Amino acid sequence: MGRGQEAEIILRRIEEQAGVTRLPPASQRPSPPVLRVSIWVLFSRAVIRRTLLAIFVNIICLFGSHTLTGWMPTFFVKQGMSVTHSLAFNSAMMAGFVAGPILCMVFADRIGVVGDFRYSVPCALLLAPLIRSSRLHSPLSAVAS
């Protein structure tokens, strides 16, 4: 940990022997010009397949989420839950459909893919017994207990 200066000296010696010139610090380098790209690039021959795949995946995801939130209250009532509790669970699920992507957007770059997996698996393992417990009769009881 404390040998950074020694490493820097060795690195400079190697660079001098190899004839490599040092680059200026990033703050002094000129930034590349910003290119404006039209939205119509998404429909160009080079990326149309990816665009169509993204559209298809989004349609399937939205169809699945709307089907789930539309069908779950009926399922909960058939399982013996009151209409009030059924709609409360459905409201909690719909809030999750809004809050989940927003939270993912905020934390995705901070945590990264490896960190996401590292945090999501223990959270799922900790929450699984709560969800499976028979005393869970309200969506807020998972948060309160």
Provide structural commentary.
The protein has a domain at 38-132. 69% of the residues lie in helices and 0% in strands. It is built from 4 helices and no strands. Helix 2 crosses helix 3 (83-132). The chain is elongated and about 80 Å long. The two termini are 44 Å apart. The model has no long low-confidence stretch (mean pLDDT 80).
| C-alpha termini separation | 44 Å
Residue-averaged pLDDT: 80
Number of helical stretches of at least 4 residues: 4
Oligomer: single chain
Report on the biggest sheet: none
Residue fraction in strands: under 5%
Provide the low-confidence segments as ranges. Answer: none
Q: Which secondary-structure class do the elements indicate?
A: mainly alpha
Radius of gyration: 26 Å
- Percent helix, as a range, is 55-70%
Principal-axis shape equals elongated
Please provide the count of β strands: 0
Write the layout of secondary structure elements.
Blueprint: H1 4-18, H2 48-78, H3 83-132, H4 141-144
Helix pairs in contact: 2-3
Features:
145 residues, mainly alpha, 4 helices
What is the gist of this entry?
The protein is built from four helices and no strands.
